[in-house]
Amino acid sequence: MRHGKYPFIVGFLAAPVAIYVTFVIAPYAQAFYVAMTSWRGVDANPSFVGLQNFERLLQDDVFWTALRHHGVLLLAMPLITIVLALFFAFMLNVGGGGRGGAMTGVWGSKFYRVVFFFPQILAVVIVAVIFGRVYAPDESGLLNATLGAVGLEPLLFMADPGIALWCVIAVLVWQAVGFYVVLFSAGMASIPKDIYEAATIDGANRVNMFFRVTLPLLWDTLQVAWVYLGIAAFDAFALVWVLSVDRGGPDRATTVLGVEIYRNAFEYSQFGYASAMGVALFFLTITFAALTLRVSRRETIEL
């Protein structure tokens, strides 16, 4: 059996590894090569320019603008999403207090789980179209109709450079929070109810119970959630492309790297430069994930 173990493992892994190399590793390697050329999408033999595309990135104001927007997204979107999801998950699982000797969620918690998760079944483009009507600059938009009903002037939500990016963040949070409510609910369900009941007997209120029991025992789940949300913040291409004014506007107030990669590749035919942006985005994402996992590392609490 021992002599036949390794051929079996190699044979079992050969197909998936070959598929992964072909469809994941090879395109990455090709993108790295294209990033060091002046390829315009139709050149049979593009010129090799070395690191010139990356030097151009460092001098590109649009690139730095998009990078700043990703910085705002990285700070705001994960933080707001995790805070809301933790609050809702806590209320749905143990927020109802002790009933019949057991900890329960608020009344109607099963129905609320379905409502919170509903945005997850919608495609990003559909969400963008829906919020395009919500943010409509006249009274046909839901928000401006509400403002008009209370006597306030309509706002140019997506046309105002000062608030457009925050409107995008609000949509990202709205779409993401339901998934993390379910994720954190699953994590809370794995916490023995005896711990909550013991904390209640000791006189702990909901605030103390959350910070002293729930949060420490959910730390690993929070770590994963922050990484996933950070990666989502580095994406945001589809939502910005469909929802924003002039695809990243107004005046590039909502642009992100994905939008600029698409624009440089398919509008300006600068595939080499677009690939350089893609390579930069790749390393930014990997660096963020590695730093987050490193900084948030802590000892596992055994139950």
UniProtKB/TrEMBL annotation:
Record membrane topology: Multi-pass membrane protein
InterPro entries documented for this protein: ABC_transporter_permease, MetI-like, MetI-like_sf
Main localization of the protein described in the UniProt heading: membrane
GO cellular component terms attached to this protein's record: plasma membrane
Keyword Cell membrane applies: yes
Pfam families: BPD_transp_1
Record's protein name: N-acetylglucosamine transport system permease protein
